[in-house]
Design goal:
It contains 10 helices and 16 strands. It has 380 residues and is of the alpha+beta class. It folds into 2 domains: 226 residues, DD-peptidase/beta-lactamase superfamily (Beta-lactamase, 3-Layer(aba) Sandwich), CATH 3.40.710.10; 125 residues, DD-peptidase/beta-lactamase superfamily (Beta-lactamase), CATH 3.40.710. The model has no long low-confidence stretch (mean pLDDT 96).
Length: 380
């Protein structure tokens, strides 16, 4: 089913050069309400976006990692109050940047700090902590270029030895915390992160096209990536945060950015959360675990796109709909990705919205806001 008004919004976003292509899936009360595609999986060959195309999730990987952590807590195998150094030696004797010098942390980082992006571990950027992290990522990128690279646990241990932007628990800053949680999942479960996710979530949910790599036989379904420039939308070669287009399981499986998926695969994960842990009669997570995942934790400062939302357990959670930049509801939650993917669950409406794009820096742009606003009017 395609809504003419929403289809027009998508087409205009492509025609204006805001994005290369998009795939929109809306479900309500477990039933498909709307499906729309527009634009291109590959602009050079004019290949149109199809429903079975595979997208790079980047940060939309994070809610899946949150679910993995919640599952381990649910089983009594992990405690959110535990110190990260219990699992990872690189987090012993951490230091924080203060006044241009590194000093010992006031307290050790805990699992809960990682879930709320309050660990002090940051993504590469232009300050002391960010520059240190940038050097580490570049070091691993060079090793990957030469056919090597660190495994998940080794890379995360190296992260822990870099200076923090602030003392753990003291503030919020978006960063590599989900990568650290991925390593903890590996250590606690005794399995590679991708294998654990496959066994506990992807197989039970029928997510057959979701993994940390896209095998050769599926590469023809992987969308090309683009970026907006002064000369229009142009190809973008993905080389960011040590995530590459692997055809087999990579050494570093990034819990913060590494998964690939389709709209239908991710819809199954979203449906499980919407049903408070149950998918088609099978319980995947307890109700308590899902409630934990979808509860507010901290208030991001200076993040305009998140106005009206709290942050917690690697997702946005709406706490003040009146401040949001789009139509929203109390208690809705979800996240998006750097290369254009987005999902939201609106429990009061029993509605899931998935809007997958293949254009850099597009997760919560104008097209998404227009589409979302229109989607909330579908039930009227």
């Amino acid at each position: 089913m395609e809504n003419e008004r929403i289809g027009k919004i998508c087409r205009q976003a492509v025609e204006s050069g805001e994005l290369a292509g998009c795939s929109l899936l809306v479900k309500q009360s477990g039933e498909e309400k709307l499906f729309v595609t527009s634009g291109y999986a590959c602009m050079e060959t004019q290949e149109r976006i199809r429903r079975d195309h595979i997208f790079r999730l980047y940060s939309q990987t994070k809610p899946v990692i949150s679910a993995a952590v919640a599952l381990l807590i649910d089983r009594g195998e992990l405690d959110a109050f535990e110190e990260v150094r219990t699992f990872l030696g690189g987090f012993v004797n951490q230091k924080v940047w203060v006044g241009g010098e590194k000093v010992p942390v006031k307290r050790n980082c805990r699992v809960m700090d990682l879930l709320g992006m309050m660990s002090g571990l940051v993504y590469p950027r232009e300050d002391e902590a960010g520059r240190e992290m940038a050097e580490l990522f570049e070091e691993n990128e060079r090793a990957m270029d030469e056919g090597g690279g660190m495994c998940t646990v080794d890379f995360v241990n190296a992260m822990g030895q870099r200076g923090l932007a602030f003392h753990p628990g003291q503030s919020f800053r978006y960063g590599v915390s989900a990568d650290v949680l991925g390593a903890i999942v590996e250590i606690v479960s005794g399995k590679k992160l991708g294998q654990f996710l496959k066994e506990e979530f992807f197989d039970p949910l029928g997510m057959k096209d979701t993994a940390f790599f896209v095998p050769e036989e599926k590469q023809n379904r992987l969308v090309h990536c683009y970026q907006r420039t002064g000369e229009g939308v142009r190809p973008y070669k993905v080389r960011h945060l040590c995530v590459r287009d692997h055809t087999s399981s990579p050494a570093f499986e990034s819990g913060g950015a590494g998964l690939y998926s389709t709209v239908d695969d991710y819809a199954a994960f979203a449906e499980m959360l919407m049903n408070r842990g149950v998918y088609r009669g099978r319980r995947i997570l307890s109700r308590a675990a899902v409630d934990f995942m979808t509860s507010p934790q901290t208030e991001p400062e200076g993040w305009e796109n998140l106005a009206g939302y709290s942050y917690g357990k690697l997702m946005r959670i709406c706490t003040c709909p009146g401040k949001a930049l789009l139509f929203s509801e109390m208690g809705e939650y979800g996240w998006d990705g750097w290369l254009g993917t987005y999902f939201a669950n609106l429990p009061h409406r029993e509605m899931t919205i998935l809007f997958f794009q293949n254009t850099k820096d597009t997760g919560t742009g104008p097209a998404l806001r227009k589409v979302r606003n229109a989607c909330l009017g579908l039930e009227e």
